[in-house]
Design goal:
Layout: H1 10-18, H2 26-29, H3 38-62, E1 67-70, E2 73-76, E3 79-80, E4 83-85, E5 88-90, E6 93-94, E7 97-100
Antiparallel strand pairs: 1-2, 2-7, 3-6, 4-5
Length: about 100
């Protein structure tokens, strides 16, 4: 059965790709890619899932705070408004960064 999707934004398109094997991964899964392997695809997917999980846990812990200071680290999590990007409107998102703080001399 063939399904046709017509995503209205890049973020919607990227979300649709999360659940499928893409043309980038297919050759690696069958040992036909000179750049990747099935093991590398699995490791990349696992790492991406772990990163998303850790980010979700941190955002849940800090709530609506935009800046959080920790022992040696700073978390910035400000909101970015929706913006028009060429052919579509990019949805708003929460910018998220963890920075190591430099020790004072």
């Amino acid at each position: 059965m063939t399904q046709t999707f017509n995503p209205s934004s890049e973020s919607e398109w990227l979300q649709l790709r999360v659940f499928d094997i893409t043309s980038t991964e297919s050759p690696a899964l069958f040992g036909l890619s000179p750049w990747s392997t099935a093991r590398a695809c699995a490791a990349a997917q696992y790492a991406d899932d772990e990163k998303k999980s850790a980010k979700a846990e941190l955002l849940l812990a800090i709530g609506d705070a935009e800046k959080v200071l920790l022992d040696g680290f700073r978390i910035s999590a400000s909101m970015r408004a929706p913006a028009e990007v060429k052919a579509y409107i990019r949805a708003g998102f929460r910018d998220f960064r963890i920075t190591t703080m430099k020790e004072k001399a």
